[in-house]
């Protein structure tokens, strides 16, 4: 979504860096809220106990870890890659 918003701004004549900053500002809150909601939904798997708890714990850790890494990648890495390949 950050790339899509940046492309829309670029079509309006905004420079690459300004487009990245503006699109990142617009998408930061929705990205964080979505990630936090999904992590909150997976926390019961992480803290599960009882029969087959090990399987549920593993699934929970994978979900939480994947969401965390994906969010960090989306917020920090994608804008840098976009700026690298999209020159003014």
UniProtKB/TrEMBL annotation:
Keywords: Membrane, Transmembrane, Transmembrane helix. It holds the Pfam family ACR_tran. One of its GO terms (cellular component) is plasma membrane. InterPro entries: Acrflvin-R (IPR001036). One of its GO terms (molecular function) is xenobiotic transmembrane transporter activity. The chain crosses the membrane at residues 30-47, 59-82. It comes from the Bacteria. PANTHER family: BLR2861 PROTEIN (PTHR32063:SF28), PTHR32063. This is Multidrug transporter MdtC. It comes from Rickettsia tamurae subsp. buchneri. The gene is mdtC.
